[in-house]
Amino acid sequence: MTVIDDGIATARRRIEEVFCSAAATAPREGKELLVQHLLVGEQDVRLLVDLEKNIITGGADLSDLAVEYSLCPSKENGGMLGWVRRGQMVPEFEEAAFGAPLNKVVRCKTKFGWHLLQVLAEREQCVVEDIPPEELHAKMQDPNFLEEAQLIDVREPDEVDKASLEGFKVLPLRQFGTWGPVMTDEFDPQKDTYVLCHHGMRSMQVAKWLQSQGFRKVYNVAGGIHAYAVKADSSIPTY
Predict the structure, then answer these.
(1) Is the pTM value of this prediction over 0.85?
(2) Burial profile 215-229: b = 16 or more Cβ within 10 angstroms, e = fewer
(3) For the structural domain made of 3-124, what CATH number should be given?
(4) pLDDT 10s digits, 60-102
(5) Nearest to 116 by CA among 162, 178, 170, 54
(6) H or E stretch at 93
(7) Which long-range contacts (CB under 8 A, 24 or more apart) does 48-55 make?
(8) Which residues does the UniProt record annotate as the domain PpiC (predicted)?
(9) CA torsion 182→185→190→193, rounded to 10°?
């Protein structure tokens, strides 16, 4: 074995040790992580070590190196994967990411090759909850709620003409291509957001999409406006 071969073998062992250590760290249950990474081939251990050294001792930015060296399509965005949660990544990458200290570059190996990853931030996981129509009705009696909450009705205009609730802004699902791209300009992702449709199916689709866009607390009106009319306010027409 040559000195170079011995060095590569040592590097491989070191990578395995770091990966195993990262995988054994606290799981961060209920968290979402903002992650960037770069990917190199399974045989490119020397390149991996050099890139890590450039970051740690040379002051290089992982995102710049990702643009130049990464094999992952995310290189177009500087290796940025965005906010991720458990269940969205291959197991090895997930364990390394959720075990990594903030801002520290961590190595791990997956079926795709070797990764250098960095967790830039963490936050509580966004959630979508069903809210019973009776509970929503009680909240809507409070003027402060109507002023603070973000209320969205994703039904079509002809449906809204038949029955509607005070304070809900109409964003027809069929017009998603128009309002979707500007959603975060019109609404605050940090505020409680309630989504309504006829029976609760379309609204759940939109609620999950809002969640993926970083909206922190999204409520789907269970059963839609039909259930609201039947269970909470009989003055609302059914159709």
Answers:
(1) no
(2) bbbbbbbbbbbbbbb
(3) 3.10.50.40
(4) 999 999 999 999 999 999 999 988 888 889 999 999 999 999 9
(5) 54
(6) helix 91-99
(7) 48/11, 48/15, 48/107, 48/114, 48/116, 49/11, 51/116, 52/105, 52/107, 52/116, 55/105, 55/116
(8) 30-121
(9) -50
Length of the chain: 239
Confidence label for 103 from pLDDT (cuts 50, 70 and 90): very high
3-state secondary structure of 139: helix
- Which residues carry out catalysis? 197
Which residues are CB-neighbours of 222 under 8 A, at least 6 positions away? 130, 131, 132, 133, 200
What is the arithmetic mean of pLDDT over 28-36? Answer: 86
72 in Cβ contact with 90 (< 8 Å)? no
C-beta separation of 164 from 156 below 8 A:
no
The residue extents of the domains of the chain are 3-124, 127-231
